[in-house]
Amino acid sequence: MRGLLVATTLAALPFGAPVQAQDYPSKAITITLVLAAGTGLDVVARTWGEQLAQSLGRPVVFDNRPGANGIVAINAVKNAPADGHALLVATSAALALNQTTYKQLPYDSAKDFVPVSLYLKSPFILIVHPSLPVRSVQALAAYVKARPGQLSYSSTGPGGAPRLATEMFMQHYGLNITHVPYKNSPQAIIDIAAGHVQLGFAEAGASRQLIRDKRLRALAVSTLTRFSSLPEVPTLAEAAGRPGLEAVSWHALVAPSATPRAIVNRLHSEMTRILKLPDVNKAISNLDLIPVAPASIEDNQQYIASEAKKWGDLITKLGLAGSQ
After folding, report:
1. Which fold does the domain 124-240 belong to in CATH?
2. Fewest 10 Å CB contacts: which of 132, 204, 227, 262?
3. Domain with CATH 3.40.190.10 in the chain
């Protein structure tokens, strides 16, 4: 009789009834990633994902869905039930830049998602070919200004973060440098080392060994703090004398905005604890990425909004708004 009562009660519940916070999680959690397996984003997410699975007592499954600057992955999560079992790890390109570069976008980052945790920044290094007679940002600016349009820089595309970082640098000093776009980051960096182009902003992990081998010269890092692997290299803010000048990519764990706030708060609390673990911080640093101290959900929202405006204004100024 008791079993019949339980069965009858369950049957009376509406199909697809939302999971209550106290029952969360009730099954495996699927985290969709905007980049392919083996990338820094993937490696770091799987590192903290193991800790999250232990904390929540349920498996955490990763689903890599690269493509279309994150739109493929974002659509998959946006259309999933907002019950905390479908989450997304995305980059600044997907959550901030796409809003301006795409003419039509099937999502609105600020309205459709809530940032559970913004946990790392990916620094860029201003690199030059060693043949350039410059050893500081100020010297480079003076050298380029005396040769308008004669030097070139490489980047991975028209609206990517490396190009935008270079354009920000150029606008700050009033420089004219020719843009040479590449299909991928390694080739863009290798061609600076080969002397085919003279400078650029490059991912730290892809350029650090070439810097150590003296095939590239590092003049500044784009983060607000110096890079632990290159402590002698000043920040761009220091070198330019402009506090707050930052040009980075970042990674964030987000949930659909309709997810119950109690579930979002629990995920935020778990991630805050996990990201303070030494092993997790080490995994991030070992990939030449910079751990970010956990912030509140509201602070994350404000930061993402400020990044969307900063880069959106620059993209619009460059005439790239709606170019994709």
Report:
1. D-Maltodextrin-Binding Protein; domain 2 (3.40.190)
2. 262
3. 124-240
Domain 27-122+248-317: assigned CATH number: 3.40.190.150
Does the global pTM surpass 0.90?
no
Which part of the chain is CATH 3.40.190.150? 27-122+248-317
E strands, 92-139, where? 113-122, 124-128
Residue type, 76: A
Q: pLDDT 10s digit of each residue in the chain, 324 long?
A: 334 333 333 333 343 345 456 789 999 999 999 999 999 999 999 999 999 999 999 999 999 999 998 999 999 999 999 999 999 999 999 999 999 999 999 999 999 999 999 999 999 999 999 999 999 999 999 999 999 999 999 998 777 888 999 999 999 999 999 999 998 888 999 999 999 999 999 988 889 899 999 999 999 999 998 888 889 999 999 998 888 889 999 999 999 999 999 999 999 999 999 999 999 999 999 998 999 999 999 999 999 999 999 999 999 999 989 988
List the 152-155 sheet strands across, edge first. 178-181, 152-155, 199-203, 124-128, 217-221
